[in-house]
Design brief:
Elements: H1 2-7, H2 10-13, H3 18-34, H4 38-48, H5 54-61, H6 67-106, H7 125-138, E1 143-144, E2 150-152, H8 153-156, E3 184-186, H9 192-200, E4 205-214, E5 226-236, H10 241-256, E6 262-269, E7 272-281, E8 290-291, E9 294-295, E10 304-313, H11 315-320, E11 329-336, H12 337-345, H13 358-362
Helix pairs in contact: 3-4, 3-6, 4-6, 5-6, 7-12
The protein binds phenylalanine.
Phenylalanine binds next to strand 10 and strand 11.
């Protein structure tokens, strides 16, 4: 029959032969076995079992075959497709189980781990000392004043009776900023805050100013190009050196304990007249210089510890800062905060404050 024979196309039948169909099935089963996860399996499913997969295309061709060939091919392709679907189902189950196991492992929470490992922060010892000093003065009714770290040369020096040719300018090794004719420095002490305060406010003035200062010092166990000072300034009617002494004795006792007073040694600062170095009774040996029969290590047997500088505000400074020296007098003092901490806590190396080792800071605890 010409109709049937003309539709018989051996070229089309060839792909449905046993060998071809088994090859398609085996390729599909191998790809399924090789899929490493569910995403890969999805891809394999569409390639080997989807509408455009070789077996689906083969299935479509079955209808074109003569009846006997159609039956054989139909069975072969049907069995092959069933085998592929079975392999897919089995692999899906395995990969889903694997994915679940992996998730359980990845999301495991070990409830026995310590939960409070986050270390609690504490303030830096320098901050603690600055706050302690501020508190001592605020308790006496003083105010805390602040000034910029980058300061006008005039306020850092000239206003404080340190004119351009004053020999004492070289006492403080200064960081100058560029360009030099801007006359801006990194403040070498907290004393410019005295000038700033007097220029902006009327007496009575009672201020304390803790802050950072800078000098071109080498960085070693006792020097740092950046360190901390605390400045005090009083300007009022009838202020004398006796008020200064009483204030510093109170300050010393508040920081070092009862009975720890101060003594003055004559000294020179351009901004104070008269000027003095302040020493503190050694708070360890309490002035005796010895401890349990041997030399006190804190004061090296002196009985006294050098603490800072002070004096009666030089009238030239009052005039430069717009304060009437006929009506007002004042006193000022300046101490190193880092230095105070060093001898108060027996810190041997100044650099410990700046190197950020928490074991060092932690030893100070938090003092509130
Ligand atoms: N500013 C001085 C210094 O840094 C300290 C000081 C302050 C002395 C106030 C007297 C009065 O050396």
């Amino acid at each position: 029959m010409s109709g049937t024979s003309s539709s018989y196309d051996p070229v089309q039948v060839t792909p449905l032969g046993e060998e071809q169909v088994f090859a398609m099935r085996d390729a599909a089963v191998a790809a399924i076995a090789a899929a490493a996860d569910l995403d890969q399996l999805k891809q394999v499913r569409s390639e080997h079992a989807g509408d455009r997969s070789p077996l689906a295309l083969a299935n479509r061709e079955i209808g074109a075959l003569p009846p006997q060939a159609r039956k054989d091919a139909g069975m072969r392709v049907g069995q092959a497709r069933a085998a592929v679907n079975e392999a897919l189902a089995a692999r899906t189950e395995v990969l889903e189980a694997e994915a679940e196991d992996r998730m359980l492992v990845e999301e495991t929470v070990d409830v026995t781990l310590p939960w409070d490992r986050q270390p609690r922060g504490a303030r830096h010892p320098i901050t603690m000392m600055s706050d302690l000093v501020s508190d001592v003065f605020v308790a006496m009714g003083w105010e805390v004043a602040e000034g910029p770290l980058v300061e006008a040369e005039w306020l850092n020096f000239d206003a404080l009776n340190l004119g351009p040719d004053h020999p004492a300018r070289t006492m403080q090794d200064t960081f100058w900023t560029e360009p030099a004719d801007n006359h801006v420095v990194l403040r070498t002490h907290t004393s410019p805050v005295q000038a700033r305060t007097m220029l902006t406010r009327e007496p009575p003035i009672y201020v304390v100013c803790p802050g950072r200062v800078f000098r071109t010092d080498e960085y070693d166990a006792t020097h740092s190009p950046m360190f901390h000072q605390v400045e005090g300034l009083v300007v009022d009617e009838g202020i004398t050196m006796a008020h200064l002494k009483g204030t510093l004795d109170h300050f010393a006792q508040a920081v070092f304990g009862e009975g720890i007073t101060t003594r003055f040694r004559p000294s020179y600062f351009p901004f104070t007249e008269p000027s003095a170095e302040v020493d503190l009774v050694c708070f360890v040996c309490r002035g005796s210089g010895t401890l349990d029969g041997s030399t006190c290590r804190t004061c090296r047997g002196e009985g006294w510890i050098e603490w800072g500088g002070c004096g009666v505000v030089n009238p030239r400074v009052l005039v430069a800062c717009g304060v009437d020296p006929e009506r007002y007098t004042g006193f000022a003092f300046g101490m190193g905060i880092d230095r105070t901490l060093m001898f108060r806590h027996g810190v041997e190396d100044l650099r410990s404050f700046f190197e950020g080792d928490v074991r060092f800071s932690r030893a100070f605890g938090t003092e509130i």
